[in-house]
């Protein structure tokens, strides 16, 4: 990899806004080329970061693009920290339509925090997610149906049939 991620991560604390933004861009640039290496490193930093650094780390993930969705889903399924899950949801929701079906697939997760994050992320996507949610509600799994029903309720969609 061209960039030293440690230097980039430390730069996210710099007093200069320009330095922080340059670090986000460098992390994202390297992450688009080496997502399998960079995304786990960013997530490891996110888990231990202060809220202000979390924002910049999340921004770097968003700037990497939808190519990171499968990697993010893998980590979301395992994550136990609700604050980190919130960042995962915000990042995944930022990918819009590309994230809808992968997010819905996580309603089958054994991790209740992951299911909550998925619902919150889909609510952020609003009406865009509704058709896919209604189609997915045909699933035979009662857990998936319940998660979808709760998500649709949060979106104020009450007129649908299972």
The residue fraction in helices comes out at over 70%
Question: How many helices does DSSP assign?
Answer: 10
Radius of gyration: 17 Å
CA-CA gap between termini:
49 Å
Beta-strand percent range? under 5%
Q: Unreliable segments (pLDDT under 50, ≥5 consecutive)?
A: none
Q: So what's the overall shape? A: elongated
Let me know the number of strands.
0
Q: Mean pLDDT, as a whole number?
A: 92
Biggest sheet statistics: none
The helix/strand class is mainly alpha
What order do the helices and strands follow?
HHHHHHHHHH
Please describe what this structure looks like:
With 162 residues, the protein is mainly α. It is built from 10 helices and no strands. Helix 1 runs antiparallel to helix 2, helix 2 packs across helix 3 (35-48) and helix 7 runs antiparallel to helix 8 (112-125).
């Amino acid at each position: 990899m061209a960039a030293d991620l440690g230097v980039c991560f430390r730069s996210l604390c710099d007093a200069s806004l320009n330095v922080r933004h340059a670090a986000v861009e460098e992390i994202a640039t390297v992450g688009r080329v080496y997502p399998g290496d960079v995304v786990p490193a960013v997530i490891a930093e996110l888990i231990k970061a202060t809220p202000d650094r979390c924002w910049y780390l999340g921004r770097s993930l968003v700037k990497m693009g939808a190519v990171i969705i499968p990697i993010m889903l893998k980590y979301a399924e395992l994550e136990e920290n609700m604050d980190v899950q919130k960042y995962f949801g915000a990042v995944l929701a930022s990918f819009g339509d590309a994230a809808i079906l992968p997010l819905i697939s996580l309603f089958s997760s054994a991790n209740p925090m992951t299911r909550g994050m998925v619902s919150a992320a889909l609510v952020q996507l609003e009406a865009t997610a509704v058709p896919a949610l209604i189609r997915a509600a045909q699933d035979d799994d009662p857990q998936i149906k319940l998660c979808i029903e709760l998500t649709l309720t949060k979106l104020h969609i009450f007129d649908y049939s299972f």
